[in-house]
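Quarterly update, task 2.4: CU-O-CU linkage-bound model.
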Amino acid sequence: MTLNRRDFLKGSAAAAGIAALPAGLARAASPVREFPLHAGHLEQVLTEGGPKTDFWGFNGRVPGPELRFAKGDQVHIAVSNELVGIDTAVHWHGLRVPNAMDGVPFVTQYPIKPGEVFHYQFETRDSGTFWYHPHQMSFEQVPRGMYGALIVEEEKPIEVDREVVWVLSDVRLGDNGRQVEDFGRVLDIANDGRLGNMVLLNGKQAGNDNVLAVRSGERIRLRLINAASARIFRLQMPGHTMHAVAFDGQAVTPRPLETVDLGPGMRVDVVVDFMAKPGTEHKVEDVDRRSRGQLARVSYLDFDPIREKPLGAPMQVQPNVLPEPDVAKAIDHYIVFQGGMRGAPVIGMIDGKPTNIQEIMEKEKLAWTMNFTAQHEHALMHEPLLYLRKGDHVVLRLINETDFAHPMHLHGHFFRVVGIDGRPQTDQYWRDTVLMAPRQSVDLAFVADNLGEWMFHCHILDHAAGGMMGTIAVE
Ligand code: C2O
Ligand code: CU
């Protein structure tokens, strides 16, 4: 079953909250894992002894509760909207769910109105590190605090002493500790997006007071999630080696990384052997040019090491079974990106009508185009960027003609990054979000095997709101 905006506009689609049961659920091989998520208003203290900050979030905290499932679980998440006067809808970033469960207002479902409940039901097809967040006014709802980790464990997890999840984000605070409510400014839309002035790690101020206590000799699997609406993190852990074992939840051959790059929406799992001396302290840093600063402090407890010698390279994470794209028989498509404050002039179409840069920026609050057209969010969007047939093998060349980096995210599918600037890549990682550097071209290959209309957008959420958002239809 596919729903499109025309159905919504005609009012002929399924009523809000009453979703068809995905076919797989009828069999219910594994037990249904039920979980309630309440979207609501809350206050949270971000720094020891500091003032309370106002948030919108899930189940009374930021980040929302960590949802943890086994691979193959039948999941039932009841999202109730307890926000006052604000519609929402929740998307499961990276999960290959049936289209009707994807959480995109006016594309896959009606918004959840205050007081309503929407039942999301799907099977966890892939293991990995994922997350959830609204797709309704996401440039505002996400930085206001609506996000959380969603972990699907492998059948046989890699051996580590402990697992730690870090949800990274930021918040823009005024002197009173309250959030500055300047969401959706053209200045942010047309530049790097709306950056906060305080970085958060698991909902607390990042920095020297955000402590990871470890025991010498410990091996930890650290699941990193960038839930910020615009900030790019480049993580370093001086004195320690981070072995990446998964990108966007998908296994990679373990490899040491000096810097872990995380664009908005992206995840990296690293394994770290903490081999420094008991009682010592170390820093975790963000070295991105815009946000340089300390994220956390690693504090070694004063206990005897649990092992003297470091373990060998970490094990390989159990890979998921994903449909393998065949580049030789693939259809080629191109998407050109233009715009931004320092970019080429944006002259093209808005909602089907020709327009110019002045109008786009000031009246329409749009600053970016994809294939020379700009679209508003969900409700007003018109045609998909691409129509694909189910089972098509596709190579999508993204051509970034802007002076900005863009983390491009595709829903419902994973793709391999097969080329950069026309050069074939040796490690063709699976990803659901790829960080395109300024003026770079990136080739993605995937099999369009999931029916429906899927969002393809920049995960700098202000850019998405400002035109870098479209859909790819698989029919
Ligand atoms: Cu993480 Cu379309 O979103
Ligand atoms: Cu962007």
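Highlight for this quarter: The chain has three domains: 8-153, 162-300, 327-474.
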